[in-house]
Amino acid sequence: MAPPRTLPSVDEDDAGLWDRVRQGDELALAALFDRHETRLFRHATRLLTHREDAKDAVTVAFFELWRKRASVRLVDGSPLPWLLTTVAHSARNLERSSRRYRALLDRAPVAEHVSTDAPDDSGVLSALKRLPEREQAVVVLSVLEGYAEREIAQALGIPAGTVKSRLARAKAKLRDELALEGARA
After folding, report:
1. Is 90 exceeded by the pLDDT of residue 66?
2. What kind and span of H or E run contains 89?
3. Separation between Cα atoms, residue 21 and residue 15, nearest integer Å
4. What domain count does the chain have?
5. Distances in Å between the alpha carbon of 91 and those of 49, 51, 111, 147?
6. Contact predicate 95/89, CB 8 Å
7. Out of 25-34, 98-107, 122-131, 136-145, which region has the weakest mean confidence (pLDDT)?
8. Which residue in 20, 44, 105, 121 has the most C-beta neighbors within 10 A?
9. Facing residues of 78 across strands?
């Protein structure tokens, strides 16, 4: 017989909740969701055009967290960096799917197509989205989320030196792209 589940304490840290999640405790997963959902949603809205897609990206990340709970890498006892990376992957997949769907709609006989893309006056987000996935993940975790190189390396399962070089390469690409945009304007 399984031990009775107890509600997580508000004071319980991510590491304690994570131990319970790994043992199959859905209430602990719900507590992690409540704790990190706002930050993950904010992260997803930076990467996606539509609010509903951002909600979907967060939901997918938590489903994956539950499904892969035996192999998730924690950083300082927290699954947040893993969740942030998974939200970014989900966002890319949702954007790709959305592009295919819009392309299909463009081929369908319709009187007029209205673009629903939100404007990005600075061009930074669109430039970020054009980076290769590996570089984008490092930029998001470092610049947007404020993680140290060591923590990013641990979350992504790569050496710290690789984080450094990907970040430098990504910043150079962004700088060049934004300079081109500025020259065109």
Report:
1. yes
2. helix 80-107
3. 10
4. 2
5. 10, 11, 30, 20
6. no
7. 98-107
8. 44
9. 75
pTM strictly above 0.90:
no
**20 C-beta neighbours (distance < 10 Å), count:** 19
Domain contains 18: yes
Least confident of 58-67, 95-104, 151-160: 95-104
86, pLDDT greater than 90: yes
Q: What confidence tier does 120 reach under pLDDT thresholds 50, 70, 90?
A: low
The whole-number pLDDT of residue 91 equals: 94
∠ CA 79-164-175, nearest 5°, is 110
What percentage of the chain carries pLDDT values higher than 70?
82
Query: What does the block give as tokens for 48?
Result: 């996606």
At 22 the three-state DSSP class reads: helix
Would you state the structure tokens that stand for residue 115, as one six-digit string? 């673009």
Q: How far apart are CA 171 and CA 177, in angstroms?
A: 10
Domain that holds residue 80: 14-104
Q: How far apart are CA 52 and CA 46, in angstroms?
A: 13
Two tokens, residue 17: 């909740």
